[in-house]
Each structure stands twice: as C-alpha cells, then as structure tokens.
Design a protein that fits this description.
Distance between the termini: 34 Å
Shape: globular
Structural class: alpha/beta
Order of helices and strands: EHEHEEHEHEE
Mean pLDDT: 90
Strand order of the largest sheet: 1-6-5-2-4
Number of helices: 4
Number of strands: 7
Strand content: 25-35%
Helix content: 25-40%
Length: about 100
C-alpha cells in the first residue's frame, strides 16, 4: 500500500480518474464556501468517526487549505494498510475549473 502526493496543478487530471475519490477534511463551514467538484466532506476534527470509512474500491485523496490536515488523514488511512493520497501544499492555490462555490 502506498501514499500518493499530488501537486495542486495535477488535481484536474486525478479528478477525472474513476479509481480516486476526493475528501475535503476542512470544517463544514469551510467546505460550504467552496470545494472540489464531487468531493466528500469529512472534517479532520471528527477523524475518530470516519477512520474506518470504506471508500469502496476507490483510493481516497485528501485535501485541506494548506495540506497539513490532509496529510495527517492520508497517513492515518495509509497506516491501516490502505492506499491514500494528499494534495501537496493544500488546495489554497488551486486554479482549475472544478471548484464549486
């Protein structure tokens, strides 16, 4: 099992791949202000309640504003023996077309 580190400029490429699911680990309030198209919202503060979440056969790619919270989430899932990913540096610099407000 492994970790994926995705640069922010490659997000749109990975969004189009069916084997990945994007998970926003920011708060519900932050998520409601804008998020990646199709991304789920599982705030890191509630990690105990979703740590065992089954993302089906998909590999979860986590993101947050700057990348530190999402890295923690990815490491947590990876430590369970599953593949996981993180958007390196966070989503703050994302300029793609797949942002929902």
């Amino acid at each position: 099992m492994g970790m994926y580190f995705i640069p922010v400029w490659e997000v749109d490429y990975y969004l189009g791949r069916p084997e990945f699911v994007f998970i926003d680990v920011r708060s519900y309030a932050e998520y409601s202000l804008g998020h990646l198209l199709g991304a789920g919202n599982f705030p890191l503060e509630r990690i105990e309640s979703w740590r065992t979440e089954r993302f089906g056969e998909k590999i979860p790619i986590f993101y947050c504003e700057r990348g530190s919270k999402s890295l923690r989430a990815a490491m947590e899932i990876s430590a369970q023996g599953r593949n996981a990913g993180n958007i390196s540096g966070g989503i703050c610099c994302y300029q793609g077309r797949n942002w929902v407000r």
